[in-house]
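Lab notebook, design round three. We kept the backbone fixed and only want residue identities now. Task for the bench partner: fill in a sequence for the structure below.
Input structure tokens:
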């Protein structure tokens, strides 16, 4: 079992058969596998909801009964701790995200991402920068390259990183910013299409934290008693 699953879910053994987990869209595939493994090992069923952390934050503030959040950033857990809605002691960084410019078409995106400066495309998929850390990272790359103003009319705005991937995979956008984990296989190579990974100095580190929320705090207390 992964550390993410163990950290958030091992406490459920003491109290309940189910735990409600809010999961950032970029972690959809790995979390489904983790949840399946967890249920097989423990008999406890994680109830997963996938979406943007921005929306999850609003829902949690409004009383949504999630017990854990697998975030795509560290800022949202920071805010939840400050709001008294999450448990700082039950939190850690489970991954550092990697941004990639991807196309489903082989050869379209070169190894230096020159397509962005050449403008040789009609549409670019980008997750909403106001709601998603990957979208904000993609926006920062475009600004650092000096092409943000020129590219804006071509942007197809996605609700989250999963939808950004879908726009590109379906051909609704020739290129788009997605998470590295969405397009690479177990061998660490791009499974299909073409891609460019922007240098890390072009966008802030995408630290991704998992944290136990206030409704799950009694589980943590029971585990430590």
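Proposed sequence:
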């Amino acid at each position: 079992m992964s550390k993410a699953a163990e950290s958030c879910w091992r406490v459920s053994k003491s109290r309940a058969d189910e735990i409600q987990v809010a999961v950032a869209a970029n972690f959809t595939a790995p979390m489904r596998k983790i949840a399946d493994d967890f249920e097989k090992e423990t008999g406890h069923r994680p109830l997963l909801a996938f979406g943007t952390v921005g929306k999850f934050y609003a829902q949690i503030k409004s009383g949504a009964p999630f017990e854990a959040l697998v975030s795509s950033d560290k800022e949202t857990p920071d805010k939840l701790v400050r709001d008294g809605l999450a448990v700082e002691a039950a939190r850690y960084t489970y991954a550092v995200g990697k941004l990639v410019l991807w196309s489903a078409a082989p050869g379209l995106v070169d190894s230096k991402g020159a397509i962005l400066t050449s403008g040789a495309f009609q549409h670019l998929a980008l997750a909403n920068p106001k709601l998603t850390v990957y979208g904000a990272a993609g926006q920062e790359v475009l600004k650092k390259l000096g092409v943000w103003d020129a590219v804006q009319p071509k942007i197809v705005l996605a609700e989250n990183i999963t939808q950004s991937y879908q726009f590109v995979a379906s051909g609704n956008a020739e290129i788009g910013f997605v998470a590295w984990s969405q397009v690479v296989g177990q061998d660490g190579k791009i499974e299909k299409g073409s891609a460019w990974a922007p240098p890390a100095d072009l966008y802030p580190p995408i630290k991704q934290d998992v944290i136990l929320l206030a409704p799950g705090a009694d589980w943590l207390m029971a585990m430590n008693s």
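Keep this in mind before ordering anything: Residues 158 and 200 are 23 Å apart (CA to CA).
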